[in-house]
Write a sequence for this structure.
């Protein structure tokens, strides 16, 4: 808030992003130190989490960038498993509340993954320890319910009032497929659901597997915990694509956990899968550093090991580089909104001839539920930065059901008669048309619309205040 007051919204946005990435690095380092990583591998692991591939390639979804609440929650669970006391219980509750406040999307996914993760920890306990762990978890869940239950209940009621829900076809578009998880070549730019992999690098995966195999005795509980998190995340990322005949795993889980029915992008479970791989890979690098030190100590005592000491240090350096930079950050992050001085003529016309409370309909509307298709609405929203008028077809994952129904009608080449009455109810004054991409011929609605401006690529139509009655034939 102080950044907004003292400077501007873009400065606040960038400040929040910077702080979120720094906190991701810091909490990643803290988690690795807690799980007995040495300082140097923990630093490299924290940097790798700060450069989390999926978070950096989706910076436009700013609420998904902060992963530090998840890391705090995972660390608190491991601490509670080791010492189930009052302090650890309160820390777990506080960590999960922070995760909810940072991003309820991440909190929902984490809540779905935790039962399996907790089960992997419980198998390492005696019956008495298991009972104490379960009681501590129940108390932490109760504290979370008291603190954030009213907020979540209000959100649930609002969604029910709007009749908000996702169709299975809409979810299937943004569910991962096997192709999205196939390993790509190392050191390539990361892109999700566009032909490249959701896997955060196959060399990192090799380091993660090495960590599991080499530290099985010393870190068995932590390894099982992170493996459970990673495997379940990959499984749920397939979303509506996991089906046997008419049965769908996503529908079955959604019917049991109703908030999940409002999720549009199951592939975002990959945030957790990538996090698990990066944490395990950091343990792999730590194991290389540990064995390097053992080998150096042996070389001081026995000359036959001396020749190996010149190889282990470069190997550790190479593994650290792979951990941090196998998937480099994207070169282009966000598009800048158009400058006010470059406003198109139609924008100036709309701004001059309308009130701030008048709304616009921009054609074409997005044709399907894919993120690529929603780029059309995103472009209209960028023009909104210039004309400062509300638009009906803005990009949102929580659009009202009334707009979703109206959007289906607007995609048709022939509009039903009640479309114009709905537009008037929403105080729509102008319809702006991109002539290059629009498929609806508005000339057929001259009794409801009149063209008031025409430019090279855009035209502006105005709704008549009342439907024009056709002249009776003589």
């Amino acid at each position: 808030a102080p950044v907004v007051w003292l400077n501007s919204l873009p400065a606040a946005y960038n400040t929040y992003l910077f702080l979120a990435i720094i906190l991701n690095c810091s909490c990643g380092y803290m988690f690795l130190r807690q799980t007995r990583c040495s300082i140097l591998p923990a630093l490299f692991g924290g940097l790798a989490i700060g450069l989390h591939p999926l978070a950096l390639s989706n910076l436009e979804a700013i609420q998904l960038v902060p992963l530090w609440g998840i890391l705090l929650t995972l660390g608190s669970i491991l601490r509670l498993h080791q010492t189930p006391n009052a302090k650890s219980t309160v820390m777990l509750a506080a960590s999960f509340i922070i995760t909810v406040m940072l991003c309820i999307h991440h909190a929902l996914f984490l809540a779905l993954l935790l039962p399996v993760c907790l089960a992997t920890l419980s198998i390492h306990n005696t019956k008495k320890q298991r009972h104490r762990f379960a009681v501590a978890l129940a108390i932490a869940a109760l504290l979370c319910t008291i603190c954030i239950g009213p907020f979540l209940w209000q959100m649930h009621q609002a969604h029910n009032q709007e009749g908000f829900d996702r169709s299975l076809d809409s979810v299937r578009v943004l569910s991962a497929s096997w192709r999205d998880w196939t390993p790509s070549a190392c050191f390539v730019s990361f892109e999700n659901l566009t032909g490249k992999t959701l896997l955060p690098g196959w060399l990192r995966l090799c380091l993660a597997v090495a960590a599991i195999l080499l530290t099985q005795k010393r870190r068995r509980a932590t390894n099982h915990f992170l493996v459970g998190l990673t495997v379940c995340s990959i499984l749920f990322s397939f979303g509506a694509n996991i089906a046997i005949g008419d049965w769908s795993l996503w529908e079955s889980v959604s019917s049991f956990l109703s908030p999940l029915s409002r999720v549009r992008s199951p592939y975002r479970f990959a945030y957790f899968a990538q996090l698990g791989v990066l944490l395990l890979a950091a343990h792999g690098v730590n194991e290389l550093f540990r064995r390097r030190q053992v080998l150096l100590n042996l070389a001081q005592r026995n000359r036959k090991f001396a020749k190996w000491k010149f190889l282990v240090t470069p190997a550790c350096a190479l593994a650290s580089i792979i951990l941090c930079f196998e998937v480099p950050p994207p070169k282009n992050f966000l598009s800048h909104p158009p400058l006010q001085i470059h406003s198109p003529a139609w924008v100036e016309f709309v701004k001059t001839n309308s009130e701030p409370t008048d709304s616009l309909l921009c054609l074409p509307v997005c044709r399907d539920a894919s993120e690529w298709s929603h780029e059309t609405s995103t472009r209209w929203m960028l023009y909104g930065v210039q004309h400062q008028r509300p638009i009906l077809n803005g990009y949102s994952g929580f659009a009202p059901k009334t707009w979703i129904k109206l959007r289906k009608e607007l995609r048709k080449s022939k509009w039903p008669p009640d479309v114009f009455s709905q537009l008037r109810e929403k105080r729509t004054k102008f319809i702006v048309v991109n002539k290059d991409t629009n498929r609806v011929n508005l000339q057929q609605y001259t009794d409801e619309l009149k063209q008031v401006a025409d430019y090279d690529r855009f035209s502006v139509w105005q709704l008549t205040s009342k439907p024009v009655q056709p002249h009776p034939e003589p």
User: Anything to note?
Assistant: The beta strands are 243-244, 247-248, 359-363, 428-434, 449-454, 458-463. The first helix runs from residue 2 to 6.
